[in-house]
Design brief:
Length: 219
């Protein structure tokens, strides 16, 4: 009895081993590809296990359910996007804004299925996936505010202005990855210039938030 309990207690710790983490990451990578090619409802756990060449029980072991598996894929994609977009802390504010937009575009370009999932909110109306997406938006707003104003706590009007810009970026980038007629450099400059317009509009309505000097023509 005691030995059995000891084995049961040790099992969760196995998830933290390097091999276990690598296996989990591998399953997430496989799932990202599967869900990009096939709808959520059309994929059963048996389908997933067959494509991953593993026993179905292994997927349950790591993710508990198909929904848990799907959410893990979305969360992993989000973490990667936010890490890329929020980097460059050592750069001057204006350069950091440029880097944030460029990193965002690179991610969308190289991870199109994951980006579509993040922006569209996942399967149907999934409140949990929508919350993940909203967290990405807030992270981008915070990063832009920090670069433009040197602070993360901003007035409601400022937040709304920047959030509106982020939402317009999502729509534009979705169209861009479907029809990549513009180069990434051109797309970045377009988004940078529209951000400059947003910052000028914010300053006009909320003078305490002066647009950085480069935004007075192009940021």
């Amino acid at each position: 009895m005691n030995n059995s309990r000891q084995r049961g207690a040790a099992r969760p710790q196995a998830r933290g081993t390097d091999r276990s983490l690598a296996r989990r990451a591998e399953l997430i990578a496989i799932g990202r590809k599967l869900f990009s090619d096939t709808s959520y409802d059309a994929l059963s756990m048996d389908d997933i296990a067959r494509h991953a060449h593993v026993a179905k029980g292994l997927i349950y072991y790591y993710f508990r359910s198909k929904r848990g598996y799907y959410l893990a894929i979305v969360e992993d994609s989000v973490a990667h996007l936010v890490t890329l977009a929020a980097g460059g802390l050592e750069l001057p504010p204006v350069e950091r804004v440029h880097r944030t937009i460029d990193s965002y575009l690179r991610y969308a370009e190289n991870n199109q299925a994951a980006y579509r999932t993040i922006v569209s909110g996942g399967v149907g109306f999934d409140a949990q996936v929508h919350a993940i997406r909203d967290g990405v938006r807030e992270a981008i707003v915070t990063t832009i505010a920090d670069g433009a104003y040197g602070r993360r706590e901003i007035a409601p009007l400022v937040r709304m202005g920047l959030l509106g810009w982020v939402c317009s970026v999502e729509g534009s980038v979705l169209d861009w990855i479907d029809r990549p007629e513009l180069s990434r450099d051109t797309m970045r400059e377009l988004l940078v210039k529209t951000l400059g317009g947003t910052l000028r509009a914010i300053e006009e309505l909320e003078p305490a938030y002066a647009a950085p000097p480069p935004a007075r023509r192009d940021i």
